[in-house]
Amino acid sequence: MEQDTKAVIQQKFRHLEDALVTEISQESTIRQLAEGENVLQTGQFIRSTILVSDGLLKVYREDEEGNEFLMYYLQPGDACALSIMCTVRNDQSGIKARAVIPSEVILVPAHLTENWLSKYKTWNHFVISSYRQRFEELLQTLDSVAFKALDERLLFYLKRYQQVQGHEVKLSHQQIADELNSSREVISRLLKKLEQRGALQLHRNYIEIIDLDSN
């Protein structure tokens, strides 16, 4: 099992040095996630740093009424920067992380990751890079919410979806409306306008993205 874990880490996290890869494979566990399964819950004390080895995770906030606010996605080779921060500070999670599709994560015990910051240069660089990337994505999300009209927010949402999941958006109009804190009727109207411009095509059970950059 250790050799299998090591092979996965070497494939997905190529920049990590051999000694660190060996230590991760010896100390960590691999967890399989079903589609829709949460690996992080709000208020949970995080005992492990989360590395994504396969699939796709959605990191989001949820209000008291169950409305979701998408923060960013995590793909294979990514680390959940907030899980690293919470493990170091022994804080409770303020976010949720859910598998969008069947996924696989590597759970690294918290007491190790802090020591690795000074022990392994590649881990230090990886953590800093993860923080920077997630911070930039959060700024983009904040800009979209604070400064853009709903049609621009929808376009931003669809572009980000396309980047991580491809050109077929397998979400209902209501699901998109919930993500953008809008109504299904408004989102359907905006999607219809995008279809008329040739940016996408609406099908019965999915939305096919054609060319969002032309709008």
From TrEMBL:
Residues 148-213 form the HTH crp-type domain. Residues 12-78 form the Cyclic nucleotide-binding domain. InterPro entries: cNMP-bd_dom, cNMP-bd_dom_sf, Env_Response_Regulators, HTH_CRP, RmlC-like_jellyroll, WH-like_DNA-bd_sf, WH_DNA-bd_sf. Gene3D superfamilies: Jelly Rolls, Winged helix-like DNA-binding domain superfamily/Winged helix DNA-binding domain. One of its GO terms (cellular component) is cytosol. SMART domains: HTH_CRP. GO terms for molecular function: DNA binding; DNA-binding transcription factor activity. Keywords: DNA-binding, Transcription, Transcription regulation. This is Crp/Fnr family transcriptional regulator.
